[in-house]
């Protein structure tokens, strides 16, 4: 009887073991489980929106060449025409890319004589990242390269459209031998620019409006802020183990669990986070780092508005620096020196984030106290550009932006001309004035 009882018990144990093994192997919550370490982050409440890579890669400006050395410029804020061109180009396919020297084409002549459009990006974009936004041939040998421009034009006197991708090193171009673009497409792009503001260039690099523009408004926007508690929950493995350190000199607050540190400053509007466990000793891959940066922001705070990938660089310690520029109403936000605002920046090594800087301000959708402003153009603007160049600070791009001022309950946004230097630094070149 005892032996029979043992047999029954053994059988039950075997059955239970098999059932447990089945659930461990096939039950979804455990199938992809990983061993938790102190370097993992806890999945917490969603704060801002999550974002996909293709929404973070778009041209900073579209240069439309009208022929006869006439040009205009569309920015994302030029919503109707900019969006019409971009929607059409995202549906087209670019196949059969072939590399050649950038000097294989006389670009100065093309710029003056032929009709077309240039897509200019904030900074160099890896081919793999560009594929997220455009239908580019995947069977391509030079995917390690990065692109800062795409130039599409119809040759004068020839029934063909040519499309070139410009390598960011300035040495090579990649021509798409089988792009499904037509003469009609190019004529449509040019038609959008026929009655828009005229722009001029002396070097083919920076384009300036021939007259002042009044297309932007000064405004005030109400805002909320991510709280300290929300960011603690998002960034620390166990928020209950963090210690608070009050900085009396700057008024900032610091929080640490011994391995990670979080600093909140500017009256709770700016965050600096450092993870001391993130150091690695392997080579960096820009595409991997950008994709990891996007994923990190998605999980730890989200996106407080529209952003553009604008910067990749290397820090003094060899880390990859990835920055995303914040936009409001399709206009980039560029603060004065001394104010941290309007961007998200991460330091990474092989996809691992070591430093995370971001604004904690969440701007509302509605604006108040709107007033039309006038941005300078013509000779007045060109003189300011020349003064910057004469000071030893070459300019590679000019674009309209919003200068923020953080008030008690609102952020004041004022139109300005911003210039990006060849070093990557962005400065405010010219303020706007009231329009009367």
From TrEMBL:
Domain of life: Bacteria
Domain Regulatory protein YycH: 3-420
InterPro entries in the record: YycH (IPR009996), YycH/YycI_2 (IPR042274)
Name this polypeptide is given: Two-component system activity regulator YycH
Source organism phylogeny: Bacteria, Bacillati, Bacillota, Bacilli, Bacillales
């Amino acid at each position: 009887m005892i032996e029979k009882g043992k047999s029954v018990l053994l059988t039950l144990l075997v059955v239970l073991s098999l059932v447990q093994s089945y659930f461990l192997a096939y039950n979804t919550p455990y199938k992809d489980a990983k061993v938790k370490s102190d370097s993992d982050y806890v999945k917490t409440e969603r704060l801002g929106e999550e974002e996909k890579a293709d929404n973070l890669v778009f041209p900073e400006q579209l240069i439309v060449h009208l022929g006869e050395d006439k040009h205009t410029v569309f920015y994302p804020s030029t919503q109707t025409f900019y969006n019409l061109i971009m929607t059409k180009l995202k549906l087209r396919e670019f196949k059969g890319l072939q590399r050649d020297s950038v000097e294989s084409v006389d670009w100065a002549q093309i710029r003056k004589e032929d009709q077309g459009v240039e897509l200019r990006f904030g900074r160099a974009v890896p081919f793999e990242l560009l594929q997220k936004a455009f239908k580019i041939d995947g069977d391509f040998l030079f995917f390690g390269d990065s692109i800062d421009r795409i130039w599409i034009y119809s040759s004068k006197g020839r029934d063909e459209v040519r499309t070139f991708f410009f390598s960011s090193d300035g040495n090579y171009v990649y021509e798409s031998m089988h792009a499904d673009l037509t003469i009609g497409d190019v004529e449509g792009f040019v038609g959008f620019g026929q009655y828009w503001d005229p722009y001029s260039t002396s070097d083919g690099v920076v384009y300036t409006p021939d007259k002042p523009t009044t297309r932007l408004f000064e405004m005030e926007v109400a805002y909320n802020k991510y709280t300290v508690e929300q960011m603690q929950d998002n960034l620390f493995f166990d928020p209950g183990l963090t210690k608070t350190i009050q900085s009396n000199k700057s008024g900032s607050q610091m929080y640490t669990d011994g391995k990670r540190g979080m600093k909140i400053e500017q009256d709770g509007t700016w965050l600096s986070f450092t993870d001391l466990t993130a150091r690695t000793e392997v080579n960096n891959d820009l595409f991997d780092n950008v994709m990891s940066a996007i994923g990190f922001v998605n999980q730890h705070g989200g996106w407080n508005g529209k952003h553009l990938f604008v910067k990749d660089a290397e820090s003094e310690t060899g880390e990859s620096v990835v920055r995303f520029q914040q936009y409001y109403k399709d206009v980039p936000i560029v603060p004065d020196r001394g104010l941290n605002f309007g961007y998200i920046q991460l330091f990474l090594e092989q996809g691992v984030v070591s430093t995370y800087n971001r604004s904690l301000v969440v701007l509302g959708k509605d604006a108040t106290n709107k007033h039309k402003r006038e941005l300078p153009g013509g000779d007045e603007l060109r003189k300011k550009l020349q003064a910057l160049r004469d000071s030893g600070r070459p300019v590679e791009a000019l674009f309209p932006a919003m200068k923020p001022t953080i008030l008690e309950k609102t952020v004041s946004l004022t139109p300005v001309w911003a210039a990006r230097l060849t070093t990557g630094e962005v400065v405010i070149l010219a303020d706007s004035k009231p329009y009367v």
